[in-house]
Amino acid sequence: MSRDRSDYASTRERSLGAWVQAVEEGGPAWEAGIEPGMRIDSVNGHELRDLIDWRWEADGASCELEVFDPTDGGTYGCELWREAGEDWGIDFTDVLFDGIRTCVNACQFCFMSMLPADARPSLSLRDDDYRLSFLQGNFVTLTNVTDEDAGRIVACRLEPMNVSIHAISPEVRRVLIGPHAQRGIDVLERLLAAGIEVHAQIVLCPGVNDGAELARTLDWVEARPSITSLAVVPLGYTRFSRRFSRSFSDDPEAARAVIGLIEPYQARSRRELGTTRFQLSDEFYVAASVDVPPAEAYDGYPQYYDGIGMLRSFLDDSAALARDHAADLAASEARLARRGSSVLVVCGEAAQGAISFLCELWSPSGRVRACPIRNDYFGGDVNVTGLIVSQDLLAQLPDDLSGSVVVLPEVMFNFDHVTLDGDTQGHIVAEIARRGGVAGVAGGGPAGIVSAVTQSLG
Fold first, then answer.
1. Rounded to the nearest 5 degrees, what angle is found at the Cα of 382, between the Cα atoms of 412 and 260?
2. Backbone angles phi, psi at 439, to 5 degrees
3. HEC states along the chain?
4. How far is CA 456 from CA 407, 416, 439, 440, in A?
5. For residue 40, what are the β-bridge partners?
6. For residues 220 and 177, what is the distance between their CA atoms, to the nearest angstrom?
7. What is the pLDDT of residues 91-127, one digit of tens each?
8. What is the pLDDT of residue 125?
9. Is 128 in contact with 102 (CB distance < 8 Å)?
10. pLDDT, tens digit (0-9, with 9 covering 90-100), for 189-205
11. What share of the chain has pLDDT > 70, as a percent?
């Protein structure tokens, strides 16, 4: 699948079934007459529940399909053939064909319970689907996994699985997760006994699962080598939270205590296994005013998208860009000077330091600057770039943007180019233009930011 992930914050309606989104011209599917808009109902007689079934059942040199054609309402059989190493040439509209499995828990720290009342319904969909854990790296609790599901994970070797542990003491897990908490550990133990690789996560809540309970959980993980990485991330809360009004971002001493507690586990793992294994999210180091660890401490960034090592990666990529493309960066700054232009790189407050580091390397004169956006929409301690909303952005950008290039982070938009508060990328770009500026959308780290500016200047 081209996107290789599912978008459940979408503003579009979704249909169940293996609907074909795209077909590669000249490929086996194209040769068999399959077209976008058709639905594949079965492969070799097996109904398709998800992309895993498709990959598993269509793994050979040929396969027999039942295909539904909505243009005439008919269902037809066809056979596909391919050469060794050739792809079938089909992309689907989604990775799940039978719908998403939702959460059965009542986690104290669930972000969905802290959304504003006017948030669109798709944002409050609480997914907890083991298939998305394998297919796109979502963290799941395993509390709704049946024995049949667990058997499928083992038989199909669906690994690595990304599993939220949070705590190991049964009473603490019940407080944090709810009455189904033990089921998650029972399933996890079965997967670990079968040798399934697991990347684990703890959402750390002050006064609940930190301190002695965190040490117990770390001990439990340390004794289970199939858990190859553990991410410890801090509770995040919004102004709508009814349970929490503080976290580690508000308490530098508490953040430093967590860093100190986990360091012996990291040192032991590096000494005995050659990997750090136990890793803290960037927020702990920012809150504690401690430098993030060097790149080698992140073991190749297995939990990058859980906020583990993003800052280190960005800082190192910025330094490499400045070293390897110094002449290009100097030329772009000179071009900005000739045009009397400046650049505002939009980011969340948590990323301001890293973005400023890139800007200072790129533009010693200060023509390129970080533009941190305070998150008033969610409030609380929400300060990450991916949760920036349109109303905060437009309220905090200058009214006069004449001569400015405004770099918008791609992560603030969903697949439909819509923000979390329901505005469109097109409207934001138009509003920046109305104020006299030019907008560019950047992804891909420091190089993506530079590319967005270069393209915006024409």
1. 120
2. -105, 145
3. CCCCCCCCCCCCCCCCCEEEEEECCCCHHHHCCCCCCCEEEEECCEECCEHHHHHHHCCCCEEEEEEEECCCCEEEEEEEECCCCCCCCEEECCCECCCCCECCCCCCCCHHHHCCCCCCHHHHCCECCHHHHHHHCCCECCCCCCHHHHHHHHHCCCCCEEEECCCCCHHHHHHHHCCCHHHHHHHHHHHHHCCCCEEEEEEECCCCCCHHHHHHHHHHHHCCCCEEEEEEEECCCCCCCCCCCCCHHHCHHHHHHHHHHHHHHHHHHHHHCCCCCEEECHHHHHHHCCCCCCHHHHCCCCCHHHCCCHHHHHHHHHHHHHHHCHHHHHHHHHHHHHHCCEEEEEEEHHHHHHHHHHHHHHCCCCCEEEEEECCCCCCCCCCCHHHCCHHHHHHHCCCCCCCEEEEEEHHHCCCCCECCCCCEHHHHHHHHHHCCCEEEEECCHHHHHHHHHHHHHC
4. 9, 22, 7, 6
5. 18, 67
6. 18
7. 999 999 999 998 999 898 888 888 888 887 777 678 8
8. 75
9. yes
10. 999 999 999 999 999 99
11. 97
Two structure tokens written together for 254: 């508490």
Return the structure tokens found at 272.
């005995």
The C-alpha atoms of residue 417 and residue 425 are separated, in whole angstroms, by: 5
Token code pair at residue 387: 């949760």
Distance CA 65, CA 58 (A): 9
- What integer is the mean pLDDT of 244-273? 95
